[in-house]
Design brief:
- By secondary structure, the protein is mainly alpha-helical.
- It has helices at about 5-15, 15-25, 35-60, 70-90, 105-125, 130-155, 160-185.
- It has a single domain, classed as Growth Hormone, Chain: A (Up-down Bundle), CATH 1.20.1250.
- Helix content is about 80%, strand content about 0%.
- The chain starts with a helix and ends with a helix.
């Protein structure tokens, strides 16, 4: 898989983290740099490790689904993208607000936002993906996007969080289509 495709997948995966980070900045406008750093590192760690776990699962099932691996990758990315789009379309009142500085809340958010990365990791396991590169890219981008999201939330409020999650979903669907078209054309 090309580096720019991995970059786009990484970017698409961290949009939900961006939305959660914006929400954290909104919920706690007094959040310090150190607190934001802790939240962002936790999100990045989960986002980087989940694809590795998914990749291990995907490698095990790759033999069984070799002929349809591009359909599996497309299906998973499509479903994940649609989930992100639907979540992004929810009204602010439909989402619960919680204290982003509570460690239990941070862990819950880290797991919730990285489930997508687990699913993508399964797709990686069925394709030719260098998992260390992919995992590192996902983790680094997630960290940066999370830090920016917290700052953005502190400064701008609720305006853009939902649209960024929708954009992430669209990106994942388009990448799934790209994988499908490349395999069908080959």
């Amino acid at each position: 898989m090309e580096l720019y495709t991995l970059f786009l997948i990484s970017l698409g995966l961290c949009f939900d983290t961006f939305a959660v980070s914006v929400g954290s900045g909104i919920a706690r406008t007094s959040i310090t740099f150190r607190q934001a750093l802790r939240i962002s590192l936790l999100f990045a760690m989960f986002q980087a490790l989940m694809p590795v776990l998914g990749w291990l699962i995907g490698r095990e099932i790759a033999i069984l689904i070799h002929e349809a691996d591009h359909w599996v990758a497309f299906g998973l990315l499509f479903l994940l993208g649609m989930k992100m789009i639907l979540e992004g379309m929810k009204q602010p009142g439909q989402k619960r607000t919680t204290d982003p500085l509570d460690l239990r809340v941070q862990l819950m958010l880290a797991v919730a936002t990285s489930i997508d990365a687990l699913v993508v990791g399964v797709s990686f396991g069925t394709l030719d993906v260098h998992i260390v590169t992919a995992s590192a890219m996902i983790g680094i981008l997630t960290f940066l996007v999370s830090m920016i999201g917290i700052l953005f939330g502190k400064k701008t409020g609720r305006t853009f969080g939902h649209s960024m999650e929708i954009a992430g979903g669209v990106i994942l669907i388009l990448i799934g289509l790209k994988i499908l078209v490349e395999h069908l054309a080959a």
